[in-house]
Write a structure and sequence with these properties.
The chain has two domains: about 260 residues, Type I PLP-dependent aspartate aminotransferase-like (Major domain) (Aspartate Aminotransferase, domain 2, 3-Layer(aba) Sandwich); about 140 residues, Aspartate Aminotransferase, domain 1. About 40% of the residues lie in helices and about 15% in strands. The chain is built from 15 helices and twelve strands. Helix 6 links the parallel strand 2 and strand 3. Helix 4 runs parallel beside helix 11. The chain is globular. Bound molecules: pyridoxal-5'-phosphate.
């Protein structure tokens, strides 16, 4: 059954999702606890041979069978994610976001096929194309995610799948996904989108014309920097196909991790709203600084991608980048090392703020970095993930770090 329940708002759905009485209760006392407990299980027991034989039949989420097919903790999380994605028939849980992207692509292509990837996808996604898929006789080519007019010409008769990401990793371009996805459909291919940044709350990807919506749950669904996981959601037809490959690859996530992700999911909406609002304040502040050449935050009016974001998204998050004005590597290092409230580390979407230096040039092949129109001297980037700290404290921290950058 495909989810198109729009009668309740996302906050209500986040509170209710996955809490079926048979998953939260004990026999005879359904709904006895609020959250589905951690059902830690490899073996599922049958009462008789007849029950064992019957158990092998359905094998969908919700049917007890064997630990690799999950148990109520994982089913509850998958059901909750499906409930958030209008148009989804089901959700598969992978042990990381990268595993989700690789698993989805492997399910949809065969030797001889051609895959298109937006030039701004997460760098490990590129490596799936140039490494894993190439090993299986699938060729991958990259396209400019802002060149809608040239997109149709990128297809060959063998093009089966197109991977998008919006906004793009590090450089934050916002392609017009509904327009791109319509071309993918016309060409008879399947569109996948890495929707980690916005989640379905900020970008209901299937409703916007994509066929497969992927997220790294490690980021703001987990939300507390303590769990790795990925998800793939799709409508009825593709979900079955994706699930077959998923089962053949033997993918499963632990119930402990699923419980953590489910806990994070309950507060996703409030955390996203808060971190997006703080990010916007910081982006505005940075845009007025003399040390900054450009702020790459599509939620900021006037920034690159703002118009497309405002037209096609319903929300954002706390992740954005900015480019320093003509400073050198040593200056950027002084700036980042001087920050107190921003941890230096990969990943994002946690309750705590993070920073990393970014140099996208090496991960681009169909576009150039810095982009046309920017002074080539302005090329060193910084990516911020804004957490739940008070924005005034974060501004003060950035201010202090700029002073340190200029002092030495
Ligand atoms: C982090 C990230 C991933 C990969 O997720 P993992 O859970 O770390 O494997 C995929 N896409 C985007 C956009 C990411 O930021």
């Amino acid at each position: 059954m495909t989810n198109d329940d729009k009668t309740k708002g996302p906050g209500t759905r986040l509170a209710e999702a996955g809490r079926r009485p048979e998953w939260t209760g004990t026999p005879g006392a359904p709904g006895a606890v609020v959250n589905p407990p951690v059902w830690r299980a490899s073996t599922h027991l049958y009462s008789s041979i007849a029950a064992l034989k019957a158990g092998g039949k359905g094998q969908q989420d919700g049917d007890f069978y064997y630990g690799r097919r999950g148990a109520p903790t994982q089913w509850a999380l998958a059901e909750a994610l499906t409930g958030l994605e209008p148009g989804a028939a089901g959700t598969l849980l992978y042990p990381s976001g990268v595993a989700a992207i690789a698993g989805a692509l492997l399910a949809l292509v065969k030797p001889g096929d051609h895959v298109l990837m937006a030039d701004n996808v997460y760098e490990p996604s590129r490596h799936i194309g140039t490494g894993l898929l190439a090993q299986f006789g699938v060729t991958t080519e990259f396209f400019d995610p802002l060149d809608l007019a040239g997109f149709a010409d990128c297809f060959t008769p063998a093009t089966r799948a197109v991977l998008f990401e919006t906004p793009g990793s590090l450089t934050m371009e916002v392609p017009d996904i509904p327009a791109f996805a319509a071309i993918v459909r016309e060409k008879g291919a399947v569109s996948l989108i890495d929707n980690t940044w916005a989640s379905p709350l900020g970008f209901p990807a299937l409703e916007r014309g994509c066929d497969v919506a992927i997220m790294s749950l490690t980021k703001h669904v987990g939300g507390h920097s303590d769990v790795m996981m990925g998800s793939v959601s799709a409508g009825e037809e593709l979900y079955g196909k994706l699930r077959r490959t998923y089962l053949q690859l033997g993918q499963v996530v632990s119930p402990d991790d699923a419980a953590l992700a489910l806990r994070g999911l309950r507060t996703l909406q409030v955390r996203l709203e808060r971190s997006a609002a703080s990010a916007l304040k910081l982006a505005e502040w940075l845009a007025a600084r003399p040390e900054v050449a450009r702020v790459l935050c599509p939620m900021l009016p006037g920034a690159p991608g703002y118009e497309t974001w405002a037209r096609t998204f319903t929300g954002g998050c706390g992740l954005f980048s900015f480019i320093l004005k003509g400073r050198d590597e040593a200056a950027r290092t002084r700036f980042i090392d001087a920050l107190d409230l921003f941890g230096i580390g990969f990943s994002w979407g946690g309750y705590e703020s993070l920073v990393i230096p970014v140099d996208p040039a090496g991960a681009r092949s169909a576009t150039s970095w810095p982009p046309a129109g920017m002074d080539p001297a302005d090329r060193l980037g910084v990516r911020l993930s804004i957490g739940l700290e008070d924005p005034a404290d974060l501004v003060a921290d950035l201010d202090r770090a700029f002073a340190r950058m200029e002092a030495d």
